[in-house]
């Protein structure tokens, strides 16, 4: 808001937050005066305005013909649903109330009109018929953007602005440099689409480094070079748009909640294979095979809830050791599944009953016990264990997983087992891999089984 009309100057004040109303005043004089700028800093404004006002008052006392004319215009921010352009003496009304802001943005992107008054709708109304929105009501909701894309063969990205942060709301699935980037400004009553001509400028205040950056529209993460962005997109395009939101004050603490993982597993199987190196001459392409590892035996032991072996150690030495192992271990699984799905009723001694009544805190969450205390017992033996909250006791459900522990499973034994597991047709296999050939763990469960008890092969490391 600057201006000189012959010998005139405008004085005004605007708050840094933009919430106040700044009213520039026109001051007339017979003498030449300077121009006073409106600045968004109260302290700086006072530093400039106070001397000027004092000078004006002194001049008035000296009969200098200074006088205050009418206010030029009001710069109060608009809260209406339509679009209002930059403040000026000639403009004080809304420019666009037709709710077609998305249409005008798409035309503006197509025409690439960079004129200083490109915000005028009159530039785009002659081209309105070029944008097809049949069956889509204006203002266009976010879930109708794919329809607009399909009708007009366009690729559109929509971003939101909240708490000084820009984040994606809708991003076109395929990477394309010719995407239309829109900023959605909305409140409880209405919404407005704005065309983003330069994403780097919009997000440039995130860092003090003012050179151009390249942004991923899904994160949005910034990169200094386009080559780094393209490498990043190979992974990021597989995921939906993301928005990093920090927890509110008072909720920014994480505490342990998976109390059921504190419950010891009732059964654990410890196993190991033994192998021989068998010489074998074979050439395939550029690879010459001179020997192979052949399993010649195995041993396993089942540890029960009391920490002792359920039965004697099973040992086998002979041909087809892996196949023999899988046949026996699956039989063991069925026997253990029957035990896991049967519950032994609780048996309490007089001392157990006394301990239950005198308990003051839950042994799981460590909080005080009130009227919701229950008796927790071992479902396999029936022995009383502790007094718990009802909610804590429900979380301590018996796990249906039976771990099979191997020493160096990932690097050795897992390769032997996998060659045999793939032959099982009635079982589901799930893996946690580190590479295409190495697995941290893998599980085996029978399809359509009533109780869904699984064998989890894990490494002892």
From TrEMBL:
Name the UniProt record assigns to this protein: C2H2-type domain-containing protein
PANTHER family tied to this protein: PROTEIN CBG23764, RHO TERMINATION FACTOR N-TERMINAL DOMAIN-CONTAINING PROTEIN
Pfam family of the protein (one): Endonuclease_7
SUPFAM superfamilies registered for this protein in UniProt: His-Me finger endonucleases
Highest rank taxon of the organism: Eukaryota
Annotated region (Disordered), positions in chain: 1-23
InterPro entries given in the database record: Endonuclease_7, Endonuclease_7_sf, His-Me_finger_sf
């Amino acid at each position: 808001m600057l201006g000189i009309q012959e010998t005139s100057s405008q004085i005004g004040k605007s708050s840094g937050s933009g919430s106040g109303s700044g009213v520039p005043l026109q001051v007339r004089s017979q003498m030449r005066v300077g121009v006073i700028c409106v600045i968004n800093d109260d302290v700086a404004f006072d530093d400039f305005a106070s001397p000027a006002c004092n000078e004006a008052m002194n001049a008035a006392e000296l009969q200098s013909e200074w006088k205050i004319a009418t206010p030029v215009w009001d710069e109060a921010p608009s809260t209406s649903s339509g679009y209002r352009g930059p403040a000026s003496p000639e403009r004080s009304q809304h420019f666009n109330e037709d709710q077609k802001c998305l249409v005008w943005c798409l035309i503006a992107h197509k025409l690439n009109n960079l004129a200083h008054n490109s915000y005028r709708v009159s530039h785009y109304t002659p081209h309105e018929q070029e944008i097809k929105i049949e069956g889509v009501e204006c203002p266009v909701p976010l879930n109708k953007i794919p329809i607009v894309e399909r009708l007009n063969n366009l690729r559109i990205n929509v971003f939101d602005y909240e708490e000084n942060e820009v984040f994606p709301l809708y991003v076109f699935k395929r990477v394309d440099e010719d995407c239309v980037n829109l900023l959605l400004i909305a409140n409880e009553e209405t919404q407005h689409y704005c065309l983003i001509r330069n994403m780097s400028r919009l997000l440039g205040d995130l860092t003090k480094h003012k050179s151009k950056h390249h942004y991923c529209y899904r994160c949005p993460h910034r990169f200094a070079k386009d080559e780094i962005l393209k490498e990043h997109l190979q992974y990021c395009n597989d995921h939906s748009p993301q928005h990093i939101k920090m927890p509110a004050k008072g909720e920014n603490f994480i505490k342990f909640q998976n109390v059921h993982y504190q419950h010891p597993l009732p059964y654990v199987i410890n196993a190991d294979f033994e192998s021989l190196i068998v010489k074998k001459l074979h050439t395939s392409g550029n690879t010459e095979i001179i020997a192979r590892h052949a399993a010649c035996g195995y041993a396993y032991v089942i540890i029960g809830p009391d920490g002792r072996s359920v039965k004697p150690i099973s040992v086998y030495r002979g041909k087809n050791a892996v196949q023999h192992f899988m046949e026996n271990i699956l039989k063991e699984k069925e026997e253990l599944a029957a035990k896991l799905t049967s519950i032994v009723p609780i048996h309490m001694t007089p001392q157990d009953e006394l301990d239950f009544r005198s308990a003051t805190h839950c042994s799981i969450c460590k909080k005080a016990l009130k009227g919701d205390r229950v008796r927790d017992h071992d479902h396999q033996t029936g022995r009383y264990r502790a007094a718990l909250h009802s909610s804590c006791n429900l979380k301590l459900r018996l796990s249906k997983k039976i771990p099979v522990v191997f020493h160096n499973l990932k690097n050795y034994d897992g390769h032997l087992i996998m060659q045999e597991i793939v032959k099982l047709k009635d079982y589901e296999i799930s893996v946690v891999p580190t590479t295409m050939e190495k697995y941290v763990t893998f599980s085996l469960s029978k399809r359509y089984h009533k109780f869904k008890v699984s064998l989890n092969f894990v490494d002892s490391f």
